Amino acid sequence: MSEHDPSEEILRLQGLRKSYNVGKPTEVEVLHGLDLRLQRRDFAALVGASGSGKSTLLNVIGLLDWPTAGELFLLGEPTRNMDDARRTALRGSAIGFVFQFHHLIQAFTALENVLMPLMVATGKPTREQIEHARSLLAQVGLEGLDQRKPDQLSGGQQQRVAVARALVTSPALLLADEPTGNLDTKSAAEVFQLFRKFNRESGCAVLLVTHDPRLSGQCDRMIELVDGNIESDDATG
Amino acid sequence: MWIEWTIATKFLREGKTQSTLILVGIAVGVAVIVFLTALITGLQVNIINRTLGTQAHIKVQPTEERNRILPSASGSAHLLLESKRAQRLRSINNWQQVRDVLDTLPRVTAVSPLISGPAFARRGEALQSVALVGIDAPRYLRIIPIQDDIVAGVFRIGAGDTVIGKQLATDLGMHVGDKLRLDGGQGRESVVNVAGIFELGVRELDARYVYLDMKQAQSLLDLPGAATIIDVTVDDIFAAQAVATRIARLTGLKAESWMETNAQLMNALRSQNLSTRMISVFVALSVALGIASVLSVSVVQRTREIGILRAMGTTRRQMLGVFLIQGALFGLAGSLLGAAAGYGLVAGFNTFGPKLFYIPVDPWLPVAAMALAAVTGILSAAVPARRAASLDPVEAIRHV
Description:
The complex is a heterodimer.
Chain A: E1 9-20, E2 28-39, E3 43-47, H1 54-61, E4 69-74, E5 77-78, H2 84-94, E6 95-98, H3 110-122, H4 127-139, H5 155-167, E7 173-177, H6 185-202, E8 205-209, H7 213-216, E9 221-226, E10 229-235
Parallel strand pairs in A: 3-8, 3-9, 6-7, 7-8
Antiparallel strand pairs in A: 1-2, 1-4, 4-5, 9-10
Chain B: H1 2-14, H2 16-52, E1 58-61, H3 95-104, E2 108-123, E3 126-135, H4 137-141, E4 150-153, E5 161-165, H5 166-172, E6 179-183, E7 189-198, H6 203-208, E8 209-213, H7 214-220, E9 229-234, H8 240-251, E10 254-257, H9 258-261, H10 263-301, H11 303-311, H12 316-352, H13 364-390, H14 393-398
Helix pairs in contact in B: 1-12, 2-10, 2-12, 2-13, 10-12, 10-13, 12-13
C-alpha cells in the first residue's frame, strides 16, 4: 500500500468545513477544516460520540451534502463546484451506500433493489447486469430469494440486500452508516464480514461509521471524530 | 424514460387503495364531463336540425327600398316627416350571375334561387292564403329535401303540377290529383294539379307552402324572369354568419344567416354552451386538485424512498419524471374509465331514457377527454413532482 501514489487515491479532503444555517443567527459549524485521505483497499472505521459530525461527514463525502468551505476530491476530481447532475452521476457510479435502516424500496423485489443503481444510470438492465446482481445476492447468502419483496425478508437479510445493492456498481468507495446498528450480533458479524470480503476482493475503500467497538476494532484504520475535528487517525492492530 | 416509468408504476401498484380511490374520483369527473357534453351536444344538434331542416342557412334578398331624400341646400335646414316605403316584391337584379358567383364561394354547399310571394288558394267556397314558392327543383332539394317528407303522391312540379303541405290539403279537403285554383291577385289565376302532399312538421309551412315551377310562380306573381330570394347552405352551420357577411359585401344584397333570423335560439344555445363549459371546467378543476393532493401525500409518504433513490444516483429530472408520469397515468386511466362510464350513461339514455332525442356518439370526445385528462394530470402533478425533485437527499433519508 503506497501512501502517496495518486493513482491509488480514492478520496481526499482539504480543509473541509461544513456549517448549517449559513448566514443566519443560528449558524453553526459542524466540521472544522478536515484533512483526510483514503486509498484503495483502505478499510477505515469512523468513530465518535453522537453529535461529533460523523453522519454529516459521511453525507458530505457521499456527495449528498455540500461542504461550506474546503475541497473534496473524489477519484482525483474536485467536487465542490460540480452541478447537481454531475454529482448525482458520480455518486451513482463511484459510491456505494449502506444505511442503518436498510432503506430498500418496498415496491421492488430484492433483485430489483440490487439493480436499482444500474437501472437509474442506464435504464432497463441487461442480461449481464441481472446475472451480476444475482451472483451478488448469492454471495451475500440470499440465493433463491431474488423475487422476495423487502417485507418478506428478515432485518439481516434486508441489510444484506442493501450491501449487494451498494456493491452492484463496483464502487470505488463504500460508505456505511452504522450498517449493523439495527441487527443482532450474529447478523452484524456476517454483514461486517461481507464488507471485509469485498474490500479484499475488489479493492474498494470502505468507510464505516460505527458505535460498536468490536467492529471498529476489526478495521485496519480508525478515524476518531471529536466535535468536528479529527482527533486521531491510527492504524489498528 | 424506462426507469421513471418502472418506478412510477411500481409505486402506483404498491399504493393500490390510494390509486384506486383517485382513479374512481377521476373517472366520475370525466364521466360527468363526457355525458354532459354528449347530452348537450346531442340536444343542440337536435334543436338545430329541427330548426334548419326547413330553412336555408342563409337567405339572400334584395336590399330594402328606402325613400331618397334630396340633399339640403347649404345654409338651409330640412324638417322631414318620412313614412317608410312599402316593400314591393322585387326581383334580385342579375340573380343568375349572383347564383353563379355564390356557387363558387368556399364553404357554400348549395345555392337555390327561388321566387316567393303571396297568393290565395281556392277550392269551391274555401279560401286560404298561401305562399307561392317557385323553385328550381334540383337545386332546392339540396337545401330542403322535401321529397323525403312527401306523405302522398310524388314530388313533381312544373307543367301545371304542384306540391302542397298536408295542413293546406286538409283545410281545403284535397287529395293527390285534385285541382287547386291559385289566385295571385289582379286577375292572375291558374289551376294546378296536386301531384304530392308533404309534411315538414312545421304547421306554418305545412299550411301555407305551395311549391311550383319557377316560371309558373313568376307569372302568377307578375314578375317574369324574377327570383326574389336565393337560399344558400354552408358546410358548417356555425360559419353561416361569416359567409353571409361575405355574400352581403360581395353582392350588395341583404344576406341573413339563420343565426340572425333565429337570434333567440342562438342565444339559448350559447348560454347552454357556456354553462356546460363552466360545469366541465369546475369538474376538471376538482379532478386536478384531487390528483395533486393524492400525489402530494404520496411524495410525503415516499420521502425516504426518494432520498434513497437520489443516493443511488437518481437525478432530479428522473424524480420529476416519476411523479409527472404518475399524474399522466392517473389522468389517462381515470379518463379511460370515465369515458367508458360516460358512454354507458349515453347508451343508457338512448336506450332507456325518455327518447325525446338521440344522443350521437362522437368518437373524438373520449380521445379529447383523455388527452385533456393526461395534460391535466401532468399539470396537477407538477407541484408535487417539483417538491419530490427538490427534496434534499440528506433530509429525505433521515425522514422516518
